[in-house]
Amino acid sequence: MQPCWIRPCFFVPNAVLIPSAVAAFVSAVGAAAPQKKVDFNRDIRPILSEHCYHCHGPDAETRDADLRLDIEAEAKKDLGGYFALVPGKPEESEIWLRVDHDDPDEVMPPPKAKRDLTPEKKELFRRWIAEGAAYEKHWAYEKPVRAELLPSVKAQVKNEIDRFVFAKLESEGLAPSPEAAPETQLRRVSLDLTGLPPSPEELDRFLSEWKSDPEAAYTGAVDRLLKSERFGERWARPWLDLARYADSNGFQADQLRDSWAYRDWVIGALNQNMPFDRFTIEQLAGDLLPYATVEQKIATGFHRTVTCNVEAGVHPEENRVNQVVDRVNTTGTVWLGSTIECAQCHDHKYDPFSMADYYSIFAYFNNTPVEVENPSGKGVSFDFYGPKMELPLDAAKQTERASLTAKLDELKGRQKTLAAANEKDRAEWESRLLASAAKAPVWETLEIEDFSGTGGETCERLEDGSLLVKGELPKQTTYTVKAWTKVNGIRAVKIEALTHESLPDQGPGRGDRPNIIVNEIRLAAATGGGKDEPVALHGAVADFSQNNWDVGGAVDGDPKTGWAINPEFGKDHWMTVRTGGPIPANENGTLLTLALDQNYGGGRTIGRLRVSVTADEPAAPDLPEDLTAILKKPAGKRSAKDKKTLDEQFAKANPKLLALHREIAGVEKALKAVEPDTTLVMVEMDESRETHVMTRGNYLAPAEKVGARTPAALHPLDPTLPKNRLGFAKWLMDRENPLVARVTVNRWWNEIFGHGLVGTLEDFGAQGDPPSHPELLDWLAVEFMDSGWDMKHLLRLMVTSAVYRQSSRVTPELLEKDPANVLHARGPRFRMSAEMIRDNGLAVAGLLSTRMGGKPIMPYQPPGLWRQIGRNEPVWVDAKNDDRFRRGIYVVYRRAAPYPSFVNFDAPDRGSCVVKRGRTNTPLQALTLLNDPAYLEMALGFADRVLTSEPSADFGRRLDLAYRLALQRTPSDAERKQLEAVYNERLGALDEKAALELLAEPLTVVKAGFTGDRRELAAWFFLSNILLNLDETITKS
Amino acid sequence: MNAAFDFSASGLVQSRRQMFQTAGMGMGGVALQWLLARDGFGAVSGGAPNKLKDGLHHPAKAKHVIYIHLVGGASHLDLFEHKPELQKRTGQLCPDEFFVGKQLAFIRSQPTLLGTPATDQFAMNPSGQSGLRLSNLLPNLQEVADEMCFIRTLQTEQFNHAPAQMFLLTGFNRFGRPSIGSWVSYGIGSENEDLPAFVVLVTGQVLGAGNSAWGSGFLPTVHQGVEFRTQGDPVLYLSNPKGIADADRLKSVEAINALNRLRLADVGDPEIATRISQYEMAYRMQTSVPELMSIDDEPKEIHELYGTEPGKTSFANNCLLARRLVERGVRFVQLFDADWDHHGNVFGSLPKKAKDVDRPVAALIKDLRQRGLLDDTLIVWSAEFGRTPMAQGANGDGKETKAGRDHHKEAYTVWMAGGGVKKGHEHGMTDELGYKPAVDPVPMHDFNATLMHLLGIDHERLTFRYQGLNLRLTGVAGNVVKGVIA
Does A957 share its domain with A1027? Predict the structure, then answer.
């Protein structure tokens, strides 16, 4: 690890940078009001921060002339007969003299810093000094207070929010927009609170209530929506972006891991409106609460979602330090809206956080175990490790598990008894094995006369009797070979998977990953050309078997198990298998038919195959080396593992034990199916680690030791709190914390209105945007705390405000004056999130499954996207059942390859904390909605729904219904005309055959109950695809 | 087919442009289609220059990049480094300073030195006028040695694949930062409004860093690399479903846009105008992308030059596609080729991999040259790190293997050709054992700063405001390596 790059945060000179729309607007407004008193926080701090702090700011390392301007006393101190700042007297202030200087050697900032001040900024600076050079604490570090008097406004208000917003509007000479139509209001608030559009029934009910009492109708709807379980699913999405929740490790390999119970915990906590302080404390330190419940431990999954690198050669300590760094930085972003990560390599350049502050927070998180380990203790291969917790089983599974465990005990007991009874056999078997270890059987290579592969492969016979398989490379296949042999009394068959230069990486597999997986081997023998008789096979042995893919699986009758050889690629491999007894032959020989099932998928099939047989004593055909070694040890010297290996071999070789062995394997497998699921949790080590400041962020360069404490510049730490994560979490949620309530309500405001009151959601420090409505932000923050950290209360305030309920129509005047709608002279209108677009489409189509929770789902995605380097797992398996219609929040999140249609709509890879997703508008989005089979399926579902619910063949009535479903309104005449023309054209163009072709896409299955006209359905399918693509359909407006 | 779209009717399309100007978002003419598309953040910094030929910050030497990444870390020592002393000392224990206190991925006990075999197959012969040495494993590239500009002393800070890939490509060893191609897209956009600015072509498995190797990090996602695939849909969701012909799709896109125009007139949100133009472009891509991806109509001599076969997935095909992409104005084409991670049996595996890439890469240089495109196009040969001059004798599970090489971060060779770099030149030199720079080390950020410089971009000035900071590709460092610029 190289330290300097971990979080580069120096100011970059002369950037191509335009301030955010919010900041630009606010400052433009400021500049437009001449001779308003200069405001330190609004006007001066940004100048100091941008132009001065780099050399005269919080970072002691880069400070020049021992002058710092971020602290008032320092800036005004005697510098030996002169002063940097003399309040009221610019001409006596060294700063002003230097800023106004002509000499390039004297002027500040120095030209080489490329931070020149504009004349406007200089003038502001001069005026500020002239007006007294008053400092104010940075607004975000002052506790929020409610304005004593709410502004009074001319416009009609519904709650306090409106007073703040309309007062500002009125001061800008703007008036609010009229209230949106009731249908629009219901659609908007349904999407905002549940992420789903209102159903036709909900719409009807709402509109009829509206007729008698619009306010009651609206607040009633809000109440219902807030109570809906869909609420938690919709609001979990932004929280899980912050929590960088994903279902995989990230980095090379990027295997899946289970922490979906944490995702479900978030959904549940939001649904029950868990107070935000408890919500915080349980996620950061639930494990440390007294008598912590299972749920509280699951909650700590928040910080176990960090990425983890398990590629070979990783250094576990470096990985751990990176994880702690991520936890600290994410915590700073989420709860403090602060870029404390800047203090990882040096004191923060702009905000009052020192390196010591950073590592003192680090110390709180520095006491969890290393999360990768080397499973074999040899080499440099690593696996994901780190604490997991078993989730409780439901009653039925508990019962099943108990009965299976009992059965297993009983079987094992019988096995033991039987083994004892077989002791004599066992001794004989061992000595036979030993004897044959010395005497290798003679193998005769079969001359294969006929080869066929179910995937259409061909083959070339090589001189050594092996077959080089060529031609098609199917994902799955079965090879069948036939050969005559004169060998009489065959006792064993040998199958070799050989390398060849023409195979990828020499093979022995044919696929890009040269593994082979032989799931099942079947042999039939026809003596002297007689009838094919199946030959029972057992006692499989191989030179090497992959973990969990033991060669025994190739003859166990289970098509899911089998023999594989990862990671021993590029080498020849063999396996042998015993026939039940000698296969008799006559003078005509025996015709052998051998079938090799290779149904793993992905082309993991044998590239070069050779088959041999032997009539020699097959007691132990080609003993693996390790078995020979064990046999040679005296019984007393064998380890427990040796004994187990021998026991297993004996069981496999002994027909009496074999049945029992298989039964045990079956029970073990069933037991695996009822094993409790697990989830990742935080666990504190008994002994704390020492924490040191890391020089330039490098963990290999520890400097002074620090203890766990909170940053000096923020509110004090209650000394009675425990000195661990729990104490830290409680400190974060202290009412004295000036940041947490503001930062949190600001994110919700952003989610509802499209941008935050503070535009930089993730940075409330000196470099962040100033709030557009500071008094409103503070009022909301205090209201949030006073309500007992009640999220639903705050959301209710926002969505019941008149500000929210305005029409979102944009007039040319508003576009000119406030393009980004910072002032809120109109209602919010912006594109939905990736997940919401999907959920909305499913709901419109009537396909949505509301089943909640559990393992992540895999709806359709184009094949071939999960093909990352590293290990064999995981594999994408398209859900064929209703799982594919479940909400987007449940779609598996794999960091190296997130769900592609989500990525196209700005979903992040969840490799790190994301506070604000982008909202782009691209051709790839158009292609997704037009052609993604998942969206085509929705279009067909939608068409089916329209035709089935409106059986009368009246186009107009059907279109009315479709519009109500998709947009909650009636189509205009122009829209009607447009779509009717398209419909008639399609209906005319589609004959029965074309309609069937259109409806035959593999994913889009016409529901079984559909009895109507297929041509109409096809034409409506076309129309539905259009409707699901409309800007309005994917926009909250 | 463009005639089918008439957007001039809507005055509001114009207002959207005005809006950008009003809001102070610097918006140039180049790549307007793509840049108009991004809207994501309150704070969107402008990027496009007004006149591209002048470069974004200074005159550009190259207009396009074809960036070839050999995933896993090609053994630069055996391909480009002539080290007789290392060959002589093969089998001797390496000096202590190569091992003691060093972070190595696989090697865990003091290793021996490993020179390139002193055989004709592996000989490193002086080539061309310049006499640059390239291995006999690369006979075709030897022919174009005079076009190449070597950096022999590139240094990285990461020794595991995924973090090193991210460090090379995003300037940061963990998730969340934009890749170099997306920075370039953000900075100067595309020249072709029907194609994305940043296109990715992959052979073999996807590298360990996954999609983040071409992700847009905190930049708006329009700047992420778009993978063009040679199997299945070339761009995800590009093909119409069965039963919907091209003419049908045109009808539906027309209907969508007609309805969106009605909506635009009604609610006035300029975002709708953007959506209309994106549907138009999506429809055009349905024709332009398959046309671009089909190499059937290339003449026979071109197929012979590259070793391409239509319909196949191969690195050679991707090289030819790269040429077709830059010909059409795509700004940044990135090729990834898997399986260069030769921990074991490096001398057995390397010849085959070298053979895979030698002919097509040489062909690319020759072909661009004969079309007059080489001066405008920068070709980069790179990897996340190099490989050790010490032998590695065991695999990840500790089992013995034939000798290979471990990951090496102290110094490795990359090269460039075309667009504004010196021809037949080498910059920097490693010590006699090829372990570390003897002169002119080039830290990773310097390398990236140089690539940006060649494109007319000042790496210190192309920044994006995120979390209160003006972040850039090169962190807080990076000096342009002037010595490689022609």
Answer: yes
User: Nearest to residue A483, comparing CAs of A585, A591, A611?
Assistant: A591
Q: Would A708 be classed as within a structural domain?
A: yes
pLDDT, tens digit, for every residue of B433-464? 999 999 999 999 999 999 999 999 999 999 99
Q: By the CB < 8 Å criterion, does B275 face chain A? A: yes
Parallel, antiparallel, or unpaired for β B442-443 and B148-155? parallel
Give the span between the Cα atoms of A758 and A338, in whole angstroms: 13
Which residues of B, range 347-366, sit inside 8 Å of A by Cβ?
Answer: 349
Measured in angstroms, the CA of B126 and the nearest CA of chain A are apart by 30
Chain B residues with CB under 8 Å of A903 CB are 211, 221, 224
What is the CATH number for A492?
Answer: 2.60.120
Pairing of strands A444-445, A372-373: unpaired
What pLDDT score does B399 carry?
A: 72
- Answer yes or no: do A708 and A586 share one domain: no
**From CA A424, how far away is CA A310, in angstroms rounded?**
48
**Residue A1001 belongs to some domain of the structure:** yes
**CB-based contact, B401 to chain A, within 8 Å:** no
Question: A599 and A690: one domain?
Answer: no
Q: Does residue A859 have a cis bond before it (omega within 30 degrees)?
A: no
Domain count, chain A: 4
Same domain, A299 and A445: no
Band (pLDDT 50/70/90 cuts) for residue A772 is very high
Q: Is residue A984 a part of any domain in this protein?
A: yes
User: How far is the C-alpha of A70 from the C-alpha of A57, rounded, in Å?
Assistant: 6
Same-domain status, A485 and A611: yes
Taking the Cβ of residue A22 and every Cβ of chain B, the question of whether any pair is shorter than 8 Å is answered with yes
Determine contact: B239 vs chain A, CB below 8 A. Answer: yes
The nearest alpha carbon in chain A to B249 belongs to: A930
A371 and A447, same domain (yes or no): no
Q: Hey, which residues 153-182 in chain B have their CB within 8 Å of chain A?
A: 157-163, 167, 171-176
- Give A837's contacts in chain B (Cβ within 8 Å): none
| Residues of the domain holding A119 | 38-136
Chain-wide mean pLDDT for chain A?
A: 88
Torsion of CA A267, A269, A271, A273, to 10 degrees: -150
Q: A522 - beta bridge partners?
A: A595
Q: Determine phi and psi for A239, rounding to 5 degrees.
A: -70, -40
Q: Which CATH number fits domain B28-34+54-249+275-474: 3.40.50, 3.40.720, 2.60.40, 1.20.120?
A: 3.40.720
Partners of A11 on chain B (C-beta within 8 Å) are 469-470
The pTM of the full predicted model, rounded to 2 decimals, is: 0.79
Burial class (CB in 10 A: 0-12, 13-18, 19+), A442: exposed
Which chain A residues are closer than 8 Å to B278 by Cβ? 921-923, 925-926
Sign of CA dihedral A34, A40, A41, A45: positive
Final residue before a domain boundary, out of A621, A641, A656: A621
Res. B486 pLDDT band, cuts 50 70 90: very high
Of A313, A339, A919, the CB nearest to B469: A339
B436 reaches A (C-beta below 8 A) = no
Per-residue model confidence (pLDDT) at position B476: 86
pLDDT of A1035 over the 60 cut: yes
Q: Is the Cβ of A636 closer than 8 Å to some Cβ of chain B?
A: no
- Any A CB within 8 A of B106 CB: yes
Task: Show Cβ contacts of residue B262 under 8 Å, excluding neighbours closer than 6 positions.
Answer: A972, A974, A975, A978
A473 and A597 together in one domain: yes
Domain boundaries, chain B: 28-34+54-249+275-474
How far apart (Å, rounded) are the C-alpha atoms in residues A898 and A879?
Answer: 16
Q: Of the candidates A77, A106, A136, which is a domain's last residue? A: A136
Strand partners, B412: B154
Cβ contact, residue pair B397, A567, below 8 Å: yes
